Amino acid sequence: MIREQYLQHLWDLLAPVPEPLRREWMFDYEEHFRQAAEHGRSEEEAAHELGDPRLIAKEMLLGYRVEQAESRNGGITHVSRAVLAAVSLGFFNLIFVLGPYIALLGVLLALWASSIAIGIASLYAIYEGTIGGTFTLIQSVFIAISLLAVGMLLGAFTKWLTGAVSKGTLQYLKFNSRMIRVKKQ
């Protein structure tokens, strides 16, 4: 009875994972219970050897989310899911993973917003040169081209920085997951 409850609980906790992969993972845990029975150990002992199914599921979900983010070229959405999976593993990750990640997302958002705002400011410069009268038309075109160039350069840098943050976050999450496994052993 313990075997079925343990495996069902683990199965339910791994619900975010596609069913074929979940079946593959569950096979190892089912095999552990089979081997324990063959060696004369009780289901309680086998379950105790495996550990808490919630912790197992959290670790497996972290690995899955990191792998998913890597396979999708480190998109921010997938990296964020991996970060949230890491945060679920404990208070340490809440402070040392989520806090800096949110700060980096704030910086990236500010850079993207600045890039777009500078691009829009180029339209305002054209407006001022043609209708507003603050600049001559030639001055406004020069200012607009300059602003557009700065906005595009900032946008290109921000795109590169977004990729670097995603890759760096994934590398840290892999390191963090390895440390959790080492600590557990």
Automatic annotation (TrEMBL):
Membrane spanning residue stretches: 82-103, 109-127, 134-157
Protein name per its UniProtKB record: DUF1700 domain-containing protein
Lineage: superkingdom: Bacteria
Tagged with keyword Transmembrane: yes
Alphabetical keyword list: Membrane, Transmembrane, Transmembrane helix
